[in-house]
Each structure stands twice: as structure tokens, then as C-alpha cells.
Design a protein that fits this description.
Layout (H helix, E strand, L loop, with lengths): L3 H4 E4 L3 H5 L5 E6 L5 H12 L3 E9 L3 E4 L2 E4 L3 E8 L7 H4 L3
Antiparallel strand pairs: 1-2, 2-6, 3-6, 4-5
Length: 97
């Protein structure tokens, strides 16, 4: 079993992810080898909420160029976590609204 801080790397803060806060939907960057069960347990442990659903997706790195040097940004895994209706909101995101 993994430690919660190793599963959840950082929150994803974009316009689209902020629009989902009213429906208790939050986005996180997670470890590439984390399962949906690992992610749900980590969110419940770190924020003290109840998770209803976890959706994951892999985001491939994009090609970037600087002059004649080129390379790719890092690939990462994104998790979209939906909380149960009777669960409280995550305070971390509430200050950003």
C-alpha cells in the first residue's frame, strides 16, 4: 500500500477544473502507477472526504523547441475525483473561488 502523499502529486488548477468545484469534482496529478482505489483512499485520507468516483487519464508529453534544440515535456497521469453529495468540500480549493 502506498502513502497518500506519494499518490497525490499536486492539484490541477485550470479554468475547466475550477468550474467543476461547485459539483464537487476535483482534478489532481497523480503517480503514474497509482490505481483508482489508491487515488480514492489517498484523497479520503488527505482531505477527510468521501469519494464517489475516480476517473483517470494519461496525458502525453508535448513537443517543445528552443531554437534548434527540441524535446518533449514530461508525460503524467491525471485523476478527476467526484465526491459524494453528503461529503464536505475540500477547503484547499475553496479559497481559490
Amino acid at each position: 500500500m502506498k502513502i497518500a502523499q506519494d499518490v497525490i502529486i499536486r492539484p490541477v488548477i485550470t479554468e475547466k477544473s475550477m468550474a467543476g468545484i461547485m459539483q464537487k469534482v476535483y482534478s489532481f496529478e497523480v503517480a503514474k502507477d497509482a490505481t483508482k482505489i489508491d487515488i480514492a483512499r489517498a484523497v479520503e485520507e488527505l482531505f477527510g472526504v468521501k469519494v464517489a468516483k475516480v476517473t483517470t487519464m494519461h496525458k502525453n508529453g508535448k513537443m517543445r523547441r528552443q531554437g534548434r534544440t527540441q524535446g518533449y515535456t514530461a508525460s503524467w497521469k491525471k485523476a478527476v475525483v467526484t465526491l459524494k453529495p453528503d461529503s464536505k468540500a475540500i477547503e484547499f480549493f475553496e479559497g481559490m473561488m
